[in-house]
Hints:
alpha+beta; Rossmann fold; D-amino Acid Aminotransferase, Chain A, domain 1; 3 domains; 15 helices
Amino acid sequence: MFNKILIANRGEIALRVIRACREMGIRSVAVYSEADELSLHTKFADEAVCIGPGPSKDSYLNTQAILTAAEVTNADAIHPGYGFLAENADFADMCSSHNIEFIGPDGRMIEAMGDKASAKATMKAAGVPVIPGSEGILSSAKEAEKLAAEMGFPVILKATAGGGGRGMRVVYRPEDLANLYSMAQIESGSAFGNDGLYLEKYIENPRHIEVQLLGDKFGNVYSLGERECSIQRRHQKLLEETPSPVVSEALRLEMGEAAVAGAKRVNYVGAGTIEFLLDKHGDFYFMEMNTRIQVEHTISEEVTGVDIVKRQIECHAGLKLPDWLSKIRLRGHSIECRINAEDPAKDFQPSPMFIENVHFPGGKGVRVDSHIYAGYQIPPYYDSMLAKLIVHGQDREEALARMLGALREFIIEGPKTTIPFHIQLLENSEIQQGKFDTHFLDSFRFDPERDDES
């Protein structure tokens, strides 16, 4: 087992890893920017090292500063959390060259799974269902036009190095394809330094379902069930739940087996997810693989009883996963709301302000993962998430009621937050009935005149 782990991240995920290390008897090292000097992860880690100014490029993306901090503190592993360097192939390889274990895949696998065309080909070879589309990168708009005509419209152009919806265009008519191809290519090149595109059949009104996986260095891979992640804004998730309201036990088994087969194909080690699109006919298709811990890993922990971060660390330390993981059954229902410092009345405009007062909700089945406190100044440089509010109930009905109660108890004075948005969302009859897809928020309207926080 590792003696000391440096956490190359901040906020709630840094605290989450610090807590796992403490329980495992592993010393922890926090790194922080000047803007995060008073953040809780610097206080609760065994050691803390400043790695630069506030902007991410000068601190949390500064690979040399992070590796220097690891060497100075004699850390023998680095946990990247999610975001920042979590899926940076060069950084993973740099850790290896410094004899530091990167708690994530090696650079080769990150590159293979990060390139969506390559990942799709790999999964197809493993027998995982994939969306019909181009074989690899498109050579031109003419090739895209030819393939689209064969598949039938609508189709979607995607950046092979993409994420967050950038470099992505849905094409409904043949006459629009050439122009949208050019736009997607320019955006992809600007955002990722790679203008490669591929084409897929566009699945209308899908559900976004991901399967949580754990793999060890002995070739064992286990599924911890699926998560429903369809409620998202501009391809960014806002609410997640498990199990999905539309996934039957038979479909869960089928999706889990496909995800495990895909992970075994690439000899995956650690925590990761395979994401699928589920259409209205109950057919699912591979979308992408995330080679890291996910923000929403918490709800899978609630319904399985598995500490995913601790198991992830054990896998990279060379320990074998227990075979009882193959017999895991989901218990009850869990929901997570991402509480962001954003104003839902102003198109979710960030609200990086001073937090005057905080009251976290509590009670049976309520969990808050957060790094904020009264007197905390929200830095303007990073993601706006302040907390993850997680509930667990014996069934979906109880979990929904428990979440609404917890949201009404959650007080954050100072910044605008998404708490009132989540209350209105969960009171919606279609949400309560589980009748939604990835486009649900396109038509959902938040009422800023309602007083939901009182």
